[in-house]
TrEMBL record:
Source organism per UniProt: Onchocerca flexuosa
Keywords in alphabetical order: Membrane, Transmembrane, Transmembrane helix
GO molecular-function terms, A-Z: vitamin transmembrane transporter activity
UniProt similarity note: Belongs to the reduced folate carrier (RFC) transporter (TC 2.A.48) family.
Protein's name in the database: Protein RFT1 homolog
Residue ranges crossing the lipid bilayer per the database entry: 9-30, 50-72, 79-100, 106-129
InterPro entries: Folate_carrier
Gene Ontology CC annotation, any one: plasma membrane
Amino acid sequence: TSKICIFQVFFNYFVQFLLVYVCFISQLIFKVSAYSQTLWGEVQKEETTLNGFAEATYTACAAIAIMLMNILSIDWDKWGEIALVLISSVDCGLLLIFSQAQTINVMYICYICYRMLYQVMITIAQYAVNLFCQIKLNVLGLKLLIFHDSTK
């Protein structure tokens, strides 16, 4: 039965879409993070920088947004892909504004929003995959754990 579970998980279109999506978006976020430091350096005129504050702020905002997502009962099977498309579109706009901004405050705001929405997208993708995979993979993981422990 574990072979059937693996087949159902790894050959499901929706799961494959989300896995590829998460891979691409994760690589993009690392590129944006590295590039943002360079852009901030080009625009910053004052000696006091708030780069660390921007990083901490996006983390706090993302945590709040994800907690709100947990409170709301949203059917991610129905709205997951639409939410990912909308958030990706907003992220695209934020990156365009970020790349053309001439003030550091606008850059910080765009960066905070972009990184917060990234965390929200990853959470949505995990919800959607977990709805389909959680039971099947837990059964498979339990079987592998039992098999691994029995070989000692």
